[in-house]
UniProtKB/TrEMBL annotation:
It comes from Albidovulum denitrificans. It comes from the Bacteria. The keyword Lipid metabolism does not apply. Keywords: Glycogen biosynthesis, Glycosyltransferase, Transferase. It catalyses: [(1->4)-alpha-D-glucosyl](n) + ADP-alpha-D-glucose = [(1->4)-alpha-D-glucosyl](n+1) + ADP + H(+). This is Glycogen synthase. Synthesizes alpha-1,4-glucan chains using ADP-glucose. Belongs to the glycosyltransferase 1 family. Bacterial/plant glycogen synthase subfamily. Its EC number is 2.4.1.21. GO terms for biological process: glycogen biosynthetic process. The keyword Transferase applies. InterPro entries: Glyco_trans_1, GS/SS, Starch_synth_cat_dom. ADP-alpha-D-glucose binds at residue 19.
Length: 480
């Protein structure tokens, strides 16, 4: 590359600073991978409470006396080799709770909070930073950054190209129409081909109609998004931009997710699987399980409808009576949390549940589990099935979205061709899921067949190198 091209990536969460889900994994690891391939990357995030203290050598590079109702500045600093920019605006981000909610209730001013993030991104893209750095490309992630390409498009022209990535179209950044001026959108943008969406404003739609290119996180999801049952109201917008839409699979950060060097577990590899058995015993003990002869399955997930956790509750009786055991880590919908707790009470020693969010425990679960269950109704990409591949924790997935693109389901043909890396089922319902679990129990009973399956899974390419190269190609295609 002639001189490192500059890219400003904008998101509401990114590892290692703040994470509530897969968006953070991607918004943190993709820029790091691209920086490794020679791109000059910066990642803009809100400075939620306490975050600014974690940057090394923070420097102020932008100030605003009134950013949606208060003083703001952008701090620049590095962390883990990545250049982060933090939008420090106490009236918007220095508060109790998580990035989006506190005690289960959304922050009431989320529209303004993330409009402010997008506004600051657009200002930096316009060269307003005081350190002389301005990007050639602005890369916006999900609805929280959707207004950034819109502010650029609807304001004075600048030579900055924009990319909008959809990690989950179910979150659309809906705000009431009367917030238009409050969100600094000109009146004329309230039309069906701009930010208006069924009588409201959608910040995701704003990004989708204004960005130069759109990406989503798997080829199958890119196809699915054109259909009403997956596009969830935005299918028309997606279809109208089909030529600019790219499905690029996520990767896994192999520095964090590799059984050979994971400090949370006893290390093992495809060549030496001994540690896996020790991790399994430790995991069973940690969850108070005494597994029978069948597989020890794990679930690490938000407990929501999207993730098909209600189906899990329905198929458990048969799986348990066939000798399976289950360890669940997750949080989310109170009814699904309760269903998981009930399962643990009903099958003590066979089902163990931890409600909460625990990164280290997630590592121990992938280290010790035999199979990871991902029965999602829709899944833009999904990361846990890829962790499963890496750790030889066989993914059992619904054949949708990225699950379909990353796991080769076991069939007589794929098994005899030695291509299978997991088990997949379709349609996403109780009957098909139960059938998949029967298949898992059968495959597991054949110990040498299961070991071959594990070894093959562990060799699947799931790192960031190839996906980052695809983003790099896309960026290059946009540059003048
Ligand atoms: N209780 C818990 N404790 C510890 N860790 C937990 C946890 N619950 C979840 N996690 C972790 O959070 C991440 C979840 O990522 P996913 O990609 O599976 O789904 P998510 O729906 O959040 O992401 C959305 O964005 C990503 C990124 O593009 C897409 O892959 C995905 O399909 C889309 O729905 C994983 O790293 C997982 O290990």
């Amino acid at each position: 590359m002639a001189g490192a091209a500059r890219v400003l990536s904008v998101a509401s969460e990114a590892v290692p600073l703040v994470k509530t889900g897969g968006l953070a994994d991607v918004a943190g690891a993709l820029p790091a991978a691209l920086a490794g391939q020679g791109w000059d990357m910066r990642v803009l995030l809100p400075a939620y409470r306490g975050l600014a203290d974690r940057l090394t050598g923070p420097q102020t590079i932008w100030r605003d006396a009134d950013l949606f109702g208060g003083k703001a500045r952008v701090l620049k600093g590095t962390l883990g080799g990545v250049m982060f920019l933090l939008l420090d605006a106490a009236h918007l981000f220095d508060r109790a709770g998580g990035p989006y909610s506190d005690a289960g209730r959304d922050h009431p001013d989320n529209a303004e909070r993330f409009a402010a993030l997008s506004w600051a991104a657009a200002e930096l893209a316009r060269g307003q930073g005081t350190d002389g750095w301005s990007p050639a490309i602005l890369h916006a992630h999900d609805w929280q950054a959707g207004l950034a390409p819109a502010y650029l498009r609807y304001g004075p022209e600048v030579p900055v190209r924009t990319v909008m990535t959809v990690h989950n179209i179910a979150f659309q950044g809906i705000a009431p129409a009367d917030k238009l001026a409050g969100l600094r959108l000109p009146g004329w943008t309230y039309s069906a081909d701009r930010v208006e969406y069924f009588g409201n404003i959608s910040t995701l739609k704003a990004g989708l109609v204004t960005a130069d290119a759109i990406t989503t996180v798997s080829p199958t999801y890119a196809e699915e998004l054109r259909r009403p049952d997956y596009g969830l109201g935005l299918e028309g917008v997606i279809a109208s931009r089909a030529r600019d839409l790219h499905g690029i699979l996520n990767g896994v950060d192999l520095a964090v997710w590799s059984p050979e060097r994971d400090p949370a577990i006893i290390p093992y590899s495809a060549k030496s699987l001994k540690g896996k058995a020790e991790n399994r015993a430790a995991l069973a003990a940690e969850f108070g399980l005494s597994p029978a002869d069948g597989p020890l399955a794990i679930v690490v997930s938000r407990l929501t409808d999207q993730k098909g956790i209600d189906l899990l509750a329905e198929v458990l009786p048969e799986f348990i009576s066939a000798g399976g055991s289950l360890a669940v880590l997750g949080a989310g919908d109170p009814a699904l949390e309760a269903a998981m707790r009930q399962a643990a009470e009903r099958w003590p020693g066979r089902v163990g549940v931890r409600i909460g969010y625990d990164e280290a425990l997630a590592h121990r679960m992938f280290g010790g589990g035999d199979a990871v269950l991902v029965p999602s109704r829709f899944e833009p990409c999904g990361l846990t099935q890829m962790y499963g591949l890496r750790y030889g924790t066989i993914p059992v997935v619904a054949a949708t979205g990225g699950l379909n693109d990353t796991v080769i389901g076991a069939t007589p043909a794929s098994l005899s061709a030695r291509a299978a890396t997991g088990v997949s089922f379709h349609p996403v319902d109780k009957t098909a899921f139960a059938g998949a679990l029967r298949q898992v129990s059968r495959l597991y009973a054949d110990r040498s067949g299961w070991t071959s399956l594990m070894k093959r899974a562990m060799k699947a390419e799931v790192g960031w190198e190839a996906p980052a190269a695809r983003y790099a190609d896309l960026y290059r295609s946009l540059l003048p």
